[in-house]
Design a protein that fits this description.
- The complex is a heterodimer of chains A (about 170) and B (about 400).
- Helices cover about 20% and strands about 15% of the residues of chain A.
- Chain A has four helices and six strands, in the order ααβαββαβββ.
- In chain A, the strands form two sheets. In chain A, strands 2-3-5-6 form a four-stranded mixed beta sheet, with no helix packed on it. Chain A has a two-stranded antiparallel ribbon with strand order 1-4.
- Chain A is of the alpha+beta class.
- The radius of gyration of chain B is 23 Å and the shape is globular.
- A two-stranded antiparallel ribbon of chain B has the order 1-2.
- The two termini of chain B are about 40 Å apart.
- Chain B has 14 helices and two strands.
- Classes of the chains: A alpha+beta (about 170), B mainly alpha (about 400).
- The interface of A and B includes residues 8, 25, 32, 34 and 40 of A.
Chain lengths: ~170, ~400
Amino acid sequence: MTSSLLRTLIPFDIYGGMKLTGKYFGKVLRQANRGAKRTHIVVEYPEVPTTLMPRFRGRLQMIKDEQGEVKCVCCLACEKICPTQVITIEKGKKEGRKTPFPVRYDFEMERCIFCEFCVESCGFDSIILNHQFELAAYDREDFSHAMEGGFQNMFDTTPVGHYSVASDD
Amino acid sequence: MTPTLFQYLTISLLQIIVILGFVMTLVPLLTFAERKVIAYVQVRLGATRVAGGLWGAQRGRTHQSRTLTGGLNGLMWFLGRVPVFSILRGLPMFIADALKLLTKEDIVPTDADKAVFVLSPALAMVAAFTVFAAISFAPGALFYFPAKFPFLGGLPFNGFLTDLNVGLLFILGVASVGVYGIVLGAWASNSKYPLLGGLRSAAQIVSYEVPLTLSLLVPVVLTGSLNFNEMSTRMAVDVPANGLVGIGRTLLMFVGFFVYTTCGFAETNRTPFDLAEAENELVAGFHTEYSGMKFSFYFLSEYASMITVSALAAAFFLGGHYLMPFGLQHVWNHFFQHSSNAFLAWTCMPSILWFLLKIFFLLFCFLWVRATVPRYRYDQLMNVGWKFLIPYTLVMFVIAALLRYAA
């Protein structure tokens, strides 16, 4: 009885709420723009680079081995499994190489759904989805990636993505 | 030396310019502070850059210096590397806000009562700004014009515009006129949402005027004056002969401060009592049909009345121009008045600095409460007003009278 009357007369709950919000205000005020330690959940993205989760699925990228050779052996597993059929591979030969060599490896990013089936199906670890997430472009041709001669290079990150964190591996 | 009429008018004009300038610069800063405080409370960062491309298309990085806004963003980003300035990074946004309001199309609804529609924002703003005539920012002269100053040499530049002997009555009376601006504007819009918002606002302000005035009667009874300067000074430093009376007075001021601020929130239509503009029920309440400069008049008047309420609370309950709140200044003076430390001795003197600091703190509390307490339902609002605050203030009034009798 007394306590309920007290609670009616003195707004303890408002005091509790103010204490909580005041605590957060002080914390964020002290840590705004301090980099390493921060309470706030905002990422100041273009200026401060973001850290991505390791399994983030970005753009398809081909990998070369230590000798600078393309690791792809044209087994066409990625081309077959791709649900939107954005990969086109042309089998060919290269001098001094025992395994088949992809003369053409085209990737149409405008239809890609970034499902990573191609990477999972690849038995030779020759492709990855890198950590590039800024994939917008001004021309449609910028979405067509090829090994050589195309507008974009399959071995590098797309040049239009200025701020993406390029894959280190 | 007494000033001639022209000298008096010139100094008054200068004072009006200074006070209006102060309020007019404080209002946009308050909108910025509102964004920031609410963002920080919600673990966000708030505005950190100016959007849009003023003078030149903006594309890509937000702080490209090719455009004006981009250059501003770059400058603020550079300044933000100093941790103290990092909270100021979104500051240019208030210029953008003001520009937006200035350049917006001013729509008058076809069926609106045009004269009233145009006049009522002005009425709200005039009421909100006239109040500053009776508020004293410093108890005496702020500074004296140097003797060589042409025309005004040797005359004082006071921290107040007028030293009305019925200052508090003037403030309460003029501030109440502001509700006419809201109700008339709502009615003149000829639309149902503004009308409902205006009616709510009228009922709310009429209800809360009673406890507000009653809670301000406590300092009136304790000091026996209606003069703003005299009240605030006596509330801060007047030493009651009986020690018990002093303690009772401090407790009364402590409780009275919270009661007064609660009523002040309702008077200025701020959250948690902003029923007049409950956007989930009434679109935007009384200013639904207003746009452009007319809307910003309402906006300015709301923020100006926030400053008024803060100034009154600071003057009568938080010690006014003195350092210590709740009438504790005489205790402070007792210890430090004759201190050899120059700074400590200085803190015993009245200063405009303490008053402004208290106003800023109270304005921060307005934003803090807005970020914390959700809006009351209408019946709850009326319950709080009539069933709690009015009995509270009546009891306080009786206690104040007893204290006055005992002193």
